[in-house]
Amino acid sequence: MAWRNRDNLHVCTPQVAWCCYATTDNPFVSVMTNLQGYVQMSSMIPGWTRNEDAEELARASFSLSVDAIIVEIGAFLGCCTVLLAGARRLRGSGMVHSVDPFDCSGDAFSVPHYQQIVTSLGGGSVRAHFEANIRRAGLSRWVQVHQGRAAEVAATWELPIDLLLLDGDQSPRGAREAFESWVPFLKPAGIIVLRNTKPREYVEGHDGHRRLVLEQIVPPQFTDVRLVGATTFAQQAADFGRHLKPSLGV
User: Fold this and answer.
1) Is residue 10 in some structural domain?
2) How many domains is the chain built from?
């Protein structure tokens, strides 16, 4: 699939074949030659974004214009961060801003899973595990960490956003708080991505993103709404965004 950028032009994306090679400064991985390399790298990190979801997320990041600003709400160990930042490394510009309290908090269903994964890694700091994964992927210069909850970080945020990924607290209250805090910064024609939105039966209190898709990710504000695997992708309409945060100058 070829995304359209803000000028309504199709943006081609790399082929799915992949390869990587190491150099002396990073024997694990140094340079990926296309998106699928970062999809492969992401699959080595504990997380839930896999297969077609992962490929489409990487393509969406790659489609953005020069110096794109991406905000990821809910980074955990960096599974999605590698997809987003790897695509920007291939493009040669842009920054991924990863927002997370890094304390295994979230909705009641998710917390035990986060804790179990971190325990299986030997415990320790969640942020340290995240940063180690980003270093191993050779992506440290493409990622900026903002440790804190979504609304707290948004309170001092000033930059217009090209792509917003919501993958944090999935309780109805937490999901809506993140949405309402960050969508005002989304540029006209900016991309919004919500994880875990597939139509299905959800554990009580774990359906926040699904509710947002049904109630908020709809015309006229959002267009080109698509479900890929368990992930919803949409674009903000060109006549939205400019008036939401006039001080941003978009």
Assistant:
1) no
2) 1
- Bridge-based pairing of strands 231-236 and 222-228 is antiparallel
The CA–CA distances, whole Å, from 17 to 1, 55, 90 equal 15, 12, 15
pLDDT digits (tens, 9 = 90+) for 79-127: 999 999 999 999 999 999 999 999 887 787 788 888 888 888 899 999 9
pTM greater than 0.70: yes
Alpha carbon distance 165, 237 (integer Å): 17
Query: 94: domain CATH number?
Result: 3.40.50.150
| Residue where the block lists tokens 């908090």 | 105
Task: Categorise residue 73: left if φ over 0, alpha if ψ from -120 to 50, beta otherwise.
Answer: beta
Q: Which domain holds residue 102?
A: 19-248
Candidate from 37-41, 112-116, 227-231 with smallest mean pLDDT:
112-116
Give the rounded distance of the alpha carbon of 17 from its chain centre. 23
Which helix (H) or strand (E) is 228 found in, with range? strand 222-228
Q: Is 1 helix (H, G, I), strand (E, B) or coil?
A: coil
Predicted pLDDT at 27: 34
